[in-house]
């Protein structure tokens, strides 16, 4: 992602909103505006070091561990440990999503071994198989006709959590993923999200 002043400003604004939503006790204080730009630089640095790590200001803030209510936002958001905490949290999420996708693919393969037709399995009403799982299975079985049917819902699933791209890595070729990797994903409107670390 190109780190233009406008991108840094957008990231900084979202970090500020997310942080003050989580830590309302800081709303009445006069925090140095450079804090948010410094935090944005940490987040953008995490992405530039490993481009699969998303620029997700809300998750970045949620990933920071507040030791006490008197914690200093500078130390929470602008240190190298802030970047490491965020990347560690992203990796845990990706591992969880990948496990879920692999379980879906195993379920599909099990049904196929029992003699079910791929169309029946993928077009059936099984709630335990997501649209992206169905899309991946269709791609892995070289059924572009079926993959095309699931592409819109698989895209929606990606946009609900962009970490699915990293979770699906090596399950299908990169260029087969339902969302173009060259699309400037950060330019989408921010959706206010609250993340729980539980």
Descriptive report:
With 198 residues, this protein is mainly alpha-helical. It is 59% helix and 0% strand. The protein contains nine helices and no strands. Helix 5 packs across helix 7.
What is the percent of helical residues?
55-70%
Q: Report the portion of residues in β strands.
A: under 5%
Major beta-sheet overview: none
Residue-averaged pLDDT, rounded?
A: 88
Q: Write the H/E string, N to C.
A: HHHHHHHHH
What is this entry, summarized?
This protein is mostly helical and 198 residues long. The chain has helices at 5-22, 34-49, 57-62, 73-77, 80-113, 118-123, 131-140, 144-160, 164-167.
Topology:
Layout: H1 5-22, H2 34-49, H3 57-62, H4 73-77, H5 80-113, H6 118-123, H7 131-140, H8 144-160, H9 164-167
Helix pairs in contact: 1-2, 2-5, 5-7, 7-8
Key traits:
mainly alpha; disordered C terminus; 0% strand; 59% helix; 198 residues
């Amino acid at each position: 992602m190109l780190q233009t002043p406008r991108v840094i400003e957008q990231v900084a604004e979202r970090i500020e909103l997310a942080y003050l939503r989580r830590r309302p006790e800081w709303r009445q204080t006069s925090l140095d505006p450079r804090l948010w730009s410094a935090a944005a630089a940490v987040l953008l640095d995490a992405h530039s070091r490993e481009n699969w790590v998303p620029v997700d200001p809300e998750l970045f803030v949620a990933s920071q561990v507040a030791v006490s209510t008197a914690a200093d936002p500078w130390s929470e958001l602008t240190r190298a440990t802030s970047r490491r905490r965020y990347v560690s949290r992203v990796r845990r999420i990706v591992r969880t999503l990948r496990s879920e996708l692999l379980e879906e693919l195993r379920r599909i393969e099990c049904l196929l071994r029992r003699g079910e037709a791929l169309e029946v399995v993928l077009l059936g009403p099984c709630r335990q198989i997501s649209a992206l799982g169905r899309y991946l299975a269709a791609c892995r079985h070289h059924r572009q006709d079926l993959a095309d049917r699931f592409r819109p819902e698989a895209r929606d699933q990606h946009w609900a959590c962009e970490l699915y791209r990293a979770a699906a890595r090596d399950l299908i070729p990169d260029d087969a993923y339902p969302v173009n990797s060259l699309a400037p994903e950060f330019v989408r409107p921010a959706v206010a999200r609250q993340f729980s670390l539980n």
